[in-house]
Amino acid sequence: MQPKVKEYLANTTGKEESRKSSSPEPLERARPCRQVDSNFWPPELYWANLKLWFKQKISKEEFDLEAHRLLTQDNVHSHNDFLLAILTRCQILVSTPEGAGSLPWTGGSAAKPGKPKGKKKLSSVRQKFDHRFQPQNPLSGAQQFVAKDPQDDDDLKLCSHTMMLPTRGQLEGRMIVTAYEHGLDNVTEEAVSAVVYAVENHLKDILTSVVSRRKAYRLRDGHFKYAFGSNVTPQPYLKNSVVAYNSLIESPPAFSAPCAGQNPASHPPPDDAEQQAALLLACSGDTLPASLPPVNMYDLFEALQVHREVIPTHTVYALNIERVIMKLWHPNHEELQQDKVHRQRLAAKEGLLLC
């Protein structure tokens, strides 16, 4: 019986020693740290990146990227092994029950000797909720609306809002921004003046195309339009009417040499101008054309479709045509009927006032 007892004691002692050796000793805990110091260079940089990751100042991807920079091709697995060791230690400490392999904490929370430990009075959940959470007005954090005076508004306004041509300063500022975008340093005064004249001539061409579609006009030198909306209209049934309009002399011939003291661009003599006006009046029709309503978006749309050369750039032309189409408006039958009733009421009131 004694040999069996000795064998049993020997086996039991070996198991207890193996259990003690498997417990997390300081040497076992220091192995991952020594692994970091031996594989990562410099190790201080790795520890600094690890602290930043724990403090959530860098992401996991950034931490992995910095760790791979400190490792060689053969030691890439050391980073993953170290993280797995940390997770394993944390799981062991969490899963270990109290009193199994760890000593109880005897810090500041322990009761002082000599004083009886009484029951702690727990406050109700309602008191905690009322103390920590208070009703808040959701509109208190909203920004207060302050009405601004339109006259005090110094923001940049577009020409489509002000309905006025841009000033020289606005054009110069826009040109400076465009020049900076294209790599230029500055804009000269001559360039600004050229753009101002170009804008004026461009608008004049658009207005000329719109008015020429509504009113009759005359041509000078075969291309210059003038005398829009003249009351003297040619009579299509008179042969001399067309001849009279074609034989108008608004300026001296180009091939004739000017006399001494005469301006080459001077107007014809008053007697000749009076004779031409009398001839045109005699050859004109008896009825005057009816008055037209003000220019609207339909007139502009028609003029831009007929005179495509006014806006030669296709991109600008297509953009402006879209804007014109979006702003087209015409009254429907109900609005026309209401306008008719309104006019009848106004006429009845005027009749009563006259009576």
Automatic annotation (TrEMBL):
Residues 1-31, 103-122 are annotated as: Disordered. It is found in: Nucleus. Keywords: Nucleus, Transcription, Transcription regulation. CDD domains: HFD_TADA1. GO terms for molecular function: transcription coactivator activity. Its main location: nucleus. One of its GO terms (cellular component) is nucleoplasm. InterPro entries: Hfi1/Tada1. The keyword NAD does not apply. Residues 14-31 have a biased composition (Basic and acidic residues). It comes from the Eukaryota. PANTHER family: TRANSCRIPTIONAL ADAPTER 1. Probably involved in transcriptional regulation. Component of the STAGA transcription coactivator-HAT complex, at least composed of SUPT3H, GCN5L2, TAF5L, TAF6L, SUPT7L, TADA3L, TAD1L, TAF10, TAF12, TRRAP and TAF9. Belongs to the TADA1 family. This is Transcriptional adapter 1. It comes from Equus caballus. The gene is TADA1.
